[in-house]
Design goal:
mainly alpha, 8 helices
Length: about 220
Amino acid sequence: MAHSLGMAYGVTSSTLLLTAGLSPATASASVHLAELGTTAVSGVSHWRFGNVDWRTVRRIGVPGAVGAFLGAVVLSSISAELARPWMAGILLALGIYILCRFTLAGPPRRSGRRYVRGRFLVPLGLGAGFVDATGGGGWGPVATPTILASGRYEPRKVIGSVDTSEFLVALAASAGFLVALGSQVLSLRIVAALLIGGLAAAPLQTRFEGESEEPEPQPGIAD
């Protein structure tokens, strides 16, 4: 159900795989290959329930894919242990920022333009994609709270857009690992297990999110 929060599927899965004794590259490569299926199903489900802003998907997904490919290549040559303190610091800083903003200033109110500009999303996608590949996860924990804090979208739109764009990130990361290390880094049994569990949960959580929000008024109907 990690996709229902827009985060934590990769972080949770990679942590468990590392605990089981897999190498960082094998764990991250296996998780990202499984995410090709889970993010595809999750993205289609979010789209059906109107949870996707395609402008955001394009502007964060493409640079996210570039960052993920580079991160996979880097992880193939160094230990992921070097990236963990840096990733933990970013997530801690984001968590403190979100907590303070919602506690002191209240929930963000949508005002002005109804989208986040590309000059903000491009570097966010690049950095989040790199963190995701090198740490085995992090796309959602970095991208979701950051976009949510902008106050431009309702939560279901943020989660749906981040989950949908993650397909591009998973595809690029998988390609990076295959190019750098070859198919020997993959454990097909682990990929299959992660895929089956993720595919079973992905459509359910998007249904709950789609039903939890009031439908948005259509332009020209309720002016």
